[in-house]
Amino acid sequence: MKHATSENVYQMLAFIVIVTLSVLSLFPLLYVVSMSLVHEQEWIAKNGFILWPDQPSLIAYKRLFAGEVIMRALGISVLRTLIGTLTVLAMTTITAYAVSREGLPGKRLLLFAVLATILFNSGLIPTYLVVRDLHLIDSFWAMIVPGLIDSWSVLVLKQFFENVPREIEESARVDGAGEGKIMLGIMLPMAAPALAAIGMFTAVGHWNAWFDALIYLNDATMQPLQLILRNMFVNPQLGFEFNPALVTNSTHRVSAESLKMAVAVIGTLPILCIYPFLQKYFTKGMYMGAVKG
């Protein structure tokens, strides 16, 4: 009886903690979405703190999509995420498969180079000089090439490839399969969960990145969405053709805070929509390469 009471108390405390953490996690999201759905009149009436708008309005989104800045930045972010994720997966997979092969000439040296990039960072100035000397300044590829290979993911995939039973590989070689066919036809399908997890982390990283664009891109027309959001927090009207203050009707005017929150929602929504479909691969994909057997 005493054990049952202790278990009930534990379950109740665990439930309270989980609910509290869930509410604390959802509160910022609810605040951002609500702030993006109010016009200036309601924003002023409630002193800028709104958890749920009385009269939800899409005026902030209409203002943003009325110009070219957000649509162009959104397109650049989508393109960067797609190309960046695919290239990182391709280069990381090729590197991981190469260093997992027995008898590869210079294997230890290559592994040392991979580990060195994890342990040591060259710093901002040397990296900028390399990007400049590669003539990538003001180029779309400045956001792709510096992070072309994820060293940590190389180690994860390498361990996974080494854990694949050698009998499968030897059977494929007996059937006349070469290295390319073994990698594409056997290794990659078996590594799909790990690739999905790595791809998701890479996509989130590219989607949320803005600092590299700030450093390498001087052309405002090439800025991704997250850099636009950062610039809006520095200067709410930076890069926008319209001026909401020119709209005389208060129900058709929007505050600078609502504009910021609307951009934040636009920048967050795509990842929130994709994440649930790949979440099931995370645990399996990130740990299967680290377990022998």
Automatic annotation (TrEMBL):
Question: Which compartments is it annotated to reside in?
Answer: Cell membrane
Q: What SUPFAM superfamilies does the entry give?
A: MetI-like
**Which Pfam families does this one have?**
BPD_transp_1
Record's keyword annotation contains Phosphoprotein: no
Protein name from the UniProt record: Carbohydrate ABC transporter permease
- Transmembrane residue ranges: 12-33, 73-97, 109-128, 140-161, 182-204, 259-278
InterPro entries named in the record = MetI-like, MetI-like_sf
**Which species is this UniProt entry from?**
Cohnella soli
Q: Topologically, how does it sit relative to the membrane?
A: Multi-pass membrane protein
The domain of life is Bacteria
Protein family (similarity comment):
Belongs to the binding-protein-dependent transport system permease family.
Keywords noted in UniProt: Cell membrane, Membrane, Transmembrane, Transmembrane helix, Transport
This protein's record includes keyword Transmembrane? yes
Outline the extent of the ABC transmembrane type-1 domain.
74-278
- Predominant location: membrane
